[in-house]
Specification:
Layout (H helix, E strand, L loop, with lengths): L2 E7 L3 H12 L6 E8 L2 E8 L2 H5 L10 E7 L14 E3 L2 E9 L2 H9 L13 H13 L2 H11 L2 E9 L2 E10 L4 E4 L3 E5 L11 E4 L5 E4 L4 E4 L5 E2 L3 E3 L15 H6 L2 H12 E2 L2 E2 L11 E6 L1 H18 L3 E5 H4 L10 E7 L5 H12 L3 E6 L5 H5 L2 E4 L12 H18 L11 H9 L4 H5 L6 E6 L2 H17 L2 E6 L16 E6 L5 H12 L4 E6 L10 E4 L8 H19 L18
Parallel strand pairs: 18-19, 18-20, 20-21, 21-22, 23-24, 23-25, 25-26, 26-27
Antiparallel strand pairs: 1-4, 1-10, 2-3, 2-4, 5-6, 6-7, 7-8, 8-12, 9-10, 9-11, 11-15, 12-13, 13-14, 16-17
Helix pairs in contact: 4-5, 7-12, 7-13, 8-12, 8-15, 12-17, 13-17, 15-17
Bound molecules: 5-amino-5-deoxy-1-O-phosphono-D-mannitol (M6R).
Length: 588
């Protein structure tokens, strides 16, 4: 999982490539590299760490009008310079996003032909294969075709061949890639924000299509090397939506967009208290599987409670990395829902493909338009979160929750509940305007934090706990409130922070009893509720605006996101790019 970009045109290439890489850094930031053609030869520069380190080594004025760049999330081989992209073998220089699963076999085969390798990466077999086939074929397109025939796994590739400095070649399978048109030249890129400073016109490359991109032309070939036509798209959003806009961090900016994201998502599906035809009817399905990873999986857990309660149909929720390999029990009335912000998560995509292969109907709930999951599912419903840059998801989570509650209401034919969403954006805004620094100050020095809640609140606890640990590196666990006493309560010490959530008023007595159990063992209790609180069993209290139970998860997650943000800030963490992570996990 990495970001790739390439530019060829009349303008100097390095500012464009470096600028684009900065917008792809969310995809990985272990190292960065660039290859460009100057004085009729390819120069390569690589640095460990962020794009800013690479930038120091680059002279923007270099007379180069063609190049490819890469930002890496290390999979095969440590984040050393030698393992950084671009990789070059003979006449071929390559940047790669994805994983070559059969690289060991291919490497072995190539080594037996006396081809030597410099890195520990899976990627290096690609330029090695290209160089090998080119020595026989003497034709770049045929060479690429032969090479990709050998590859198993996923790839989006940017390729430069020393015999053709008039074109950059690109091909994809299982990893995203766009080709973009500028008035002075053309780009290849992993994602649209990388090119928005220059153009909003782009083409989505289909799987196994090969693009030949020159400064004023784009040709796309199918896998039989026949020229095919393509559709030019216009990106609707502004680059502003992918910029910081005065905020210190994307995470904070994105949380602060939640009132708008809620409204945009709601208004896309509902008008004047009625569902629009943008929301199809899924009533023929009698059982549902929800499959996703990370935060999207927690959306699934929350949605399953709501759908079961409201629609009276069973919902089975599973993480995608398990679902794809386990025996699952479907029938003709099963709908498999895949939830994914990026629409590119490898395990979620594999789970989707498994269901499609079994002829089961699939529905994708996705943020990134025309991403792989969106394109391959039978139905797709988009959340309207806009570009999410921070690695920790926030606004997309809130949009996914909103959409799944709407879906449950539609399924249950309980449209009267739609009125409970009216004005919710104002309550969201109210929560966004509250100050959570005080709570963060009481947590940030601890090494363990617990989150407890019941039912839907437990789902929100899971998300709050993940937000805290991924951004602040504090160990944190979420428990069903009634379960803690079955062992894990032994971890509670004097001062251990426990965040208790209760938005289900008929459960508040039970949850409060569980909170008292930890309080009496010395825990530092932060209680979050929309209920009236009469007793002082907490150290800090966060009162949520009161709304109908069905919309409460849209509200209750907000303080947890902001607490995680404030704690991470107090701890001086790299909030938008936490260590070891990447925004879209396109590896298994
Ligand atoms: O793009 P996806 O929604 O498929 O991503 C799934 C998870 O990788 C993602 O939600 C991850 O858990 C986030 N970093 C959480 O903030």
């Amino acid at each position: 999982m990495c970001g790739i970009i390439g530019y060829i045109g009349k303008d100097k290439a390095l500012p464009r490539i470096l600028n684009g890489l900065k917008f792809l850094e969310y995809r990985g930031y272990d190292s960065a590299g660039i290859a460009y053609v100057v004085n009729n030869k390819v120069e390569i520069k690589k640095e460990i760490g962020r794009i800013s380190s690479l930038e120091k080594e680059i002279n923007y004025d270099t007379e180069t009008y063609m190049g490819i760049g890469h930002t890496r999330w290390a999979t095969h081989g440590e984040p050393f310079k030698i393992n950084s992209h671009p990789h070059q073998v003979g006449k071929f220089t390559v940047v790669h996003n994805g994983i070559i699963e059969n690289y060991a076999k291919l490497k072995n085969k190539l080594e037996n032909m006396n081809i030597t390798f410099k890195s520990d990466t899976d990627t290096e077999v690609i330029p090695a294969l290209l160089n090998y086939y080119y020595s026989k074929e003497k034709d770049i397109l045929k060479t690429i075709k032969k090479t990709i025939n050998d590859l198993e796994g996923s790839y989006a590739l940017g390729i430069i061949c020393d015999d053709d400095y008039e074109n950059i070649y690109a091909v994809r399978f299982g990893s995203p890639l766009i080709i973009a048109k500028d008035k002075n030249g053309n780009f290849i890129a992993s994602d649209v924000p990388a090119i928005l400073a220059y153009t909003n016109k782009y083409i989505l490359l289909n799987e196994l299509e090969i693009a030949k991109v020159s400064k004023n032309n784009i040709e796309v070939y199918n896998k039989d090397l026949e020229l095919v036509s393509y559709v030019e798209k216009i990106f609707e959003g502004s680059q502003e939506s992918a910029l910081l806009n005065g905020y210190d961090h994307y995470m904070l900016k994105e949380i602060n967009e939640e009132d708008k994201v809620f409204l945009d998502t709601f208004n896309y599906y509902v008008q004047n208290g009625k569902f629009k035809n943008t929301m199809p009817d899924f009533k023929k399905y009698k059982n549902i599987h929800i499959v996703a990873c990370g935060s999207a999986y927690y959306v699934g857990i929350i949605a399953s409670s709501i759908i079961e309660e409201l629609c009276n149909i069973p919902v089975y929720v599973e993480v995608a990395s398990e679902y794809r390999y386990k025996k699952v029990f479907y029938d003709k009335d099963t709908l498999v829902i895949i939830i994914s912000q990026s629409g590119e998560t490898a395990d979620s995509l594999a789970a989707l493909r498994k269901s499609c292969a079994d002829n089961i109907d699939t529905l994708a709930i996705v943020n990134v338009v025309a991403s792989s999951i969106a394109r391959e599912a039978k139905y797709v419903l988009y959340v309207k979160a806009g570009p999410e840059i921070a690695v920790a998801t926030t606004k997309a989570f809130l949009a996914q929750i909103t959409l799944l509650i709407l879906l449950a209401i539609k399924l249950a034919k309980k449209d009267a509940l739609l009125k409970e969403f009216i004005g919710l954006e104002k309550l969201i805004k109210k929560l966004l305007n509250q100050d959570y620094k005080d709570v963060a100050l009481s947590i940030y020095k601890n090494s363990n934090v617990f989150f407890i809640g019941r039912g839907i609140d437990y789902g929100i606890c899971l998300e709050g706990s993940l937000k805290l640990k991924e951004t602040s590196y504090i160990n944190s666990v979420a428990f069903q409130a009634g379960e803690l006493k079955h062992g894990s309560i032994s971890l509670i010490e004097v001062g251990t922070p426990v965040i208790g959530i209760c938005t289900k008023k008929d459960m508040s007595k039970k949850t409060i009893s569980n909170i008292k159990e930890v309080k009496s063992r010395g825990a530092y209790v932060i209680y979050i509720t929309n209920d009236t609180v009469v007793d002082k069993f907490y150290d800090k209290l966060i009162i949520l605006p009161d709304a109908h139970e069905i919309v409460m998860p849209i509200l209750s997650v907000i303080p947890l996101q902001l607490i995680a943000y404030e704690v991470a800030k107090l701890r001086g963490c790299d909030i938008d790019k936490p260590r070891n992570l990447a925004k879209s996990v396109t590896v298994e």
